[in-house]
Amino acid sequence: MPRQATAESRRWTPPGPVDLGLVLGPLRRGPGDPTFRTASDGSLWRVSRTPEGPGTLRVALRSGTAEAQAWGPGAGWLLDRLPALLGDADDPAAFAPRHRLVAATHRRRPGLRLARTGLVLESLIPSILEQKVTTDEAYRAWRLLVRAYGEPAPGPAPDRMHAMPDARTWRMIPSWEWHRAGVDNKRASTILRAVRVASRLEEAATMEPQQAQERLELVPGIGPWTSAETVQRSNGAPDAVTVGDLHLPGIVGYALAGERDSDDARMLELLEPYRGQRHRAARYILLSGRTPSRRTPKMPRVDIGKL
Fold first, then answer.
1. Which of 26, 38, 159, 175 has a CA between 20 and 30 Å from the CA of residue 278?
2. For the chain, how many structural domains are there in total?
3. Where are the beta strands (DSSP E) in the chain?
4. CA 295 and chain centroid, separation
5. Structural domain harbouring 130
6. Residue 144, CB half-sphere, CA atoms under 13 Å: how many?
7. Cut 0.90: pTM above it
8. Does 180 fall in a domain?
9. At CB < 8 A and 24+ separation, what contacts does 142-145 make?
10. How many Å apart are CA 34 and CA 242, to the nearest integer?
11. Cα–Cα distance for residue pair 164/171, rounded to 1 Å
12. Which pLDDT tens digit goes with each residue over 26-44?
């Protein structure tokens, strides 16, 4: 595919403030993510595998208006969904702060909206890679596999940007390449099961978030943590709170109640006043910067050669 393709363009003025970093930042999987790049001029680049094929999207905000260009077979698909990507389907007004810390962060971050990509696998696969390992290990695996088996980004994207592999290519990755990327058999097998039913999983992007999570969790190896992390991005789900996370319960407990040893049950209890908006509340809590000092070692790196 030619790197220099003709760009399609679109402008969209959001109805309220939008902070590109806050809205699209959760889509980036580490500083070396081949599918995401922040340019020196403040614009954001994304490469996605759409139902129409790979596409590169560049978005910048100019005087409150989003200006976007896109390249490749998926360009039109990406531009048609630009408003949803930037949170047009989101309803920030539905959120009411119930704690002083949350209210203060809410005031400081008026541009937070929840993105809706409309794409499931591009969030599901890296979420599976993040199961039970450090984020650095998961980011490395995603980076290596996408660069080795994905397609170079169409258009004038920054160097080394790639679209992730299609479902068939994921299925063709040899076992030793998963191993070389640091991915154990359990996570690799979960990804392989998911891509075998890729079209059924992609349908979840059009469902209500709870139904979407239930659809994803039909695949063995995909549980509530992974499904929530996925629909937060694919569906813009404001209530899909992440349970089963190593750090989030402690952060929520410390921020809202001064407790250092909260578990999932306690986190859900503290977030109950935000039911319907619990994921958004957790985002504001994380953005507040109020986190407990670490008292336990980080999750150890896993040597899959010893498994």
1. 38
2. 1
3. 8-12, 36-38, 44-50, 53-62, 65-71, 151-152, 162-163
4. 28
5. 121-234
6. 16
7. yes
8. yes
9. 142/29, 142/30, 142/33, 142/34, 143/29, 143/30, 143/32, 143/33, 143/34, 144/180, 144/181, 145/173, 145/177, 145/178, 145/181, 145/183
10. 25
11. 13
12. 999 999 999 999 999 999 9
Going by pLDDT thresholds of 50, 70 and 90, the confidence category of residue 293 is: confident
| Residue 11 is assigned to a structural domain of this protein | no
Six token digits for residue 208: 């209500």
One-letter amino acid for residue 15 of the chain = P
Report residue 157 as tokens. Answer: 């994207």
**The domain that contains 192 carries what CATH number?**
1.10.340.30
Q: Is the dihedral of CA 189, 136, 59, 81 positive or negative?
A: positive
Q: At a CB cut-off of 8 Å and minimum separation 6, what does 258 contact? A: none
Closest CA to 162 of 24, 75, 32: 32
Query: Does residue 75 belong to any structural domain of this protein?
Result: no
Task: Please give the Cα distance from 136 to 141 (Å, whole number).
Answer: 9
The residue with tokens 């030619």 is 2
